[in-house]
TrEMBL record, chain A:
Tagged with keyword Transmembrane: yes
UniProt keyword annotations, A-Z: Membrane, Transmembrane, Transmembrane helix
Keyword Ribonucleoprotein in record: no
Record-given protein name: TIGR03943 family protein
Domain named DUF1980: residues: 125-213
Database matches in NCBIfam families: TIGR03943 family putative permease subunit
Regions that span the bilayer: 34-51, 58-77
Xref: InterPro entries: DUF1980, DUF1980_C
TrEMBL record, chain B:
Transcription regulation recorded as keyword: no
Positions of transmembrane segments: 6-24, 36-65, 85-107, 114-138, 144-164, 191-212, 224-240, 286-308
Protein's organism: Lentzea albidocapillata subsp. violacea
Name of the featured protein: Permease
Membrane topology: Multi-pass membrane protein
Superkingdom: Bacteria
Length: 214, 309
């Protein structure tokens, strides 16, 4: 590798990162809050490109993430990743009543937590609106899923809700479900975690949300 | 002049043209390729700020901090300097990708290897961000946070002392001196070097992440010892950022507390990504000795502390 190639690689990496920031695509890979740090790294990369010095051979590999973004342009994690990992639930200290609204918008993560750890006490007699993508459980259950991200897609884990009375849809279809709580759970074959259910009243296709992860 | 030779820039151009032509081909739309690429890109993007800031900090140390200052701050006797370095790791928030170049800079400055390596292990494992994340992931289980901090400090200190007794400096390929170029050149070189190795680690980790089905774990969860070993192995293979691993650990609901603690203690100290970066920074002779030893010490520390919880 010579100096010109090193400059091109550094600038390609800076450019590809900038592009994911400008298009908003970066939220498919990392937490939205990382953007100031990503801006700083773009600036530093551009600065590095101006400097002189040796260029180690291994730096060639830095072209691979650029090619992955250019050629594959991966979408956010979907059904494939969800089936491969166990449902994740985190217990809250308390479950205050849901806000007003009929149907009331609830995050999938929140619904599952309330259903599993609070026996659905705050969900009963309420109509809820949930947004997620479709997936299929090991026994053919229709699942509504949202991935949760802590740092990056490598730690993305699904929260799964079973849908009763749902029309069949292909996996990875984003939908908005209006429904109500039912006393029913299934076991996630991957980690033995509990999958609560929702009784679907109505489901419509929607565009993938700007922030695909909860 | 007039020379017809295919140089690196031409190779890059061909790669990019090929990329543009292949863009959107249906083979790249399959779920497995999409998931693999998403995980690969995300590991690199997540590491990018920590790596660029890490090499900036390490170059700053290399260029602007005199060795005298560093040696004065630390206790003179290495036996005491090791735990001091572990404790210093507590205050520096950052993740493992950043601590590798910083440890390299400390070595260049003439800090004893045992001390620099202890810092390398402790900094990503017990900083405030990581401990808060652990508390959030395990609500109502303060033991998990305390256990993580105690077991990680124990493992890092034991590794430092072990290096004092058994370690040999000639295992380490001393990071190159290039101070004649100044701050930016140093940082640029470190970035190109460590970044290349980070990509190797990200490639491996994404492959494991996508191709190893999570349900295999179900078979080992009920055997206490197997469960601990499986969690240690998984921490190595998945190479998750130390700031995020607590949430992943919490999702292994079927595993014992000790097994989860092992995942949290091993992950920030040994994983594929780190192994690749350590190979790049300190050489292969070092990495093939240091990583397995760290794995054993970290697992043992987690089991010992886990027994107290």
């Amino acid at each position: 590798m010579n100096r010109a190639a090193a400059i091109v690689i550094l600038l390609l990496l800076a450019g590809a990162t900038t592009r994911t920031l400008v298009t908003g695509q970066y939220v498919s890979y990392v937490k939205a809050g990382l953007w100031p740090l990503l801006v700083i790294s773009v600036v530093l990369l551009a600065l590095f490109a101006t400097a002189k010095g040796h260029q180690p051979k291994v730096a060639w590999l830095l072209v691979l993430p650029v090619l992955a973004l250019l050629v594959v342009a991966p979408k956010s994690l979907g059904s494939y990743a969800a089936v491969n990992a166990g449902t994740v639930l985190t217990e809250s200290d308390e479950y205050p009543p849901l806000p007003d609204g009929d149907p009331v918008e609830v995050k999938i993560f929140d619904y599952a937590s309330r259903a599993v750890f609070d026996e659905g006490r705050t969900l009963r007699d309420r109509r809820v609106r949930l947004v997620g993508f479709t997936s299929t459980g090991p026994n053919g259950e229709r699942l509504l899923v949202r991935m949760i991200l802590t740092c990056c897609a490598a730690d993305g884990r699904p929260v799964k809700i079973g849908m009763r009375n749902a029309e069949p849809l292909p996996d990875d279809t984003w939908i908005e479900v209006v429904g109500s709580y039912v006393d029913e759970t299934a076991e996630d074959g991957v980690n033995g975690g509990k999958i609560p259910f929702v009784d679907v009243e109505d489901a419509i296709r929607v565009a993938q949300p700007e922030r695909p992860y909860e | 002049m007039g020379e017809r030779r295919i140089g690196p820039v031409e190779v890059l151009a061909v790669l990019l043209v090929g990329g543009v032509l292949l863009r959107g081909h249906e083979i790249f739309q399959t779920p497995i390729v999409q998931t693999w690429a998403a995980v690969f890109v995300s590991i690199v993007l997540q590491a990018l700020p920590f790596l660029t800031l890490g090499v900036a900090l390490s170059s700053a140390i290399a260029v602007y901090v005199s060795s005298d200052v560093l040696t004065k701050v630390l206790p003179r006797r290495p036996v005491l300097a090791v735990p001091a370095a572990a404790a210093a790791g507590v205050v520096l928030p950052g993740c493992e990708c950043g601590s590798v170049p910083v440890a390299g800079a400390l070595l260049r400055k003439g800090i004893a290897p045992a001390v620099a390596l202890t810092f390398l292990l402790a900094a990503p494992a017990v900083n405030p961000i990581v401990l808060v994340a652990t508390a959030v992931a395990f609500p109502g289980q303060p033991g998990m946070v305390l256990g993580r901090a105690a077991a990680s400090l124990l493992a890092a200190t034991v590794m430092g002392w072990l290096w004092l007794r058994k370690g040999r400096t000639d295992w380490i390929k001393m990071p190159e001196h290039s101070h004649q170029h100044g701050f930016l050149s140093q940082a640029r070189h470190d970035f190109l070097h460590a970044g290349g190795f980070l990509v190797i680690g990200a490639l491996l980790a994404a492959t494991i992440n996508v191709f190893v089905p999570g349900r295999w774990l179900q078979f080992v969860a009920d055997e206490p010892w197997l469960a601990v070993l499986a969690m240690a192995g998984l921490a190595v293979l998945l190479s998750i950022c130390s700031e995020a691993d607590a949430f992943v650990a919490a999702s292994f609901t079927q595993f014992s507390t000790t097994a989860k603690l092992t995942f949290l203690v091993v992950g920030p100290m040994v994983d594929l990504k780190l192994f690749a970066m350590q190979t790049g920074m300190f050489g292969r002779r070092f990495a093939i000795r240091f990583a397995p030893a760290t794995l054993v010490v970290a697992t043992a520390s987690a089991v010992a502390i886990g027994a107290l919880l």
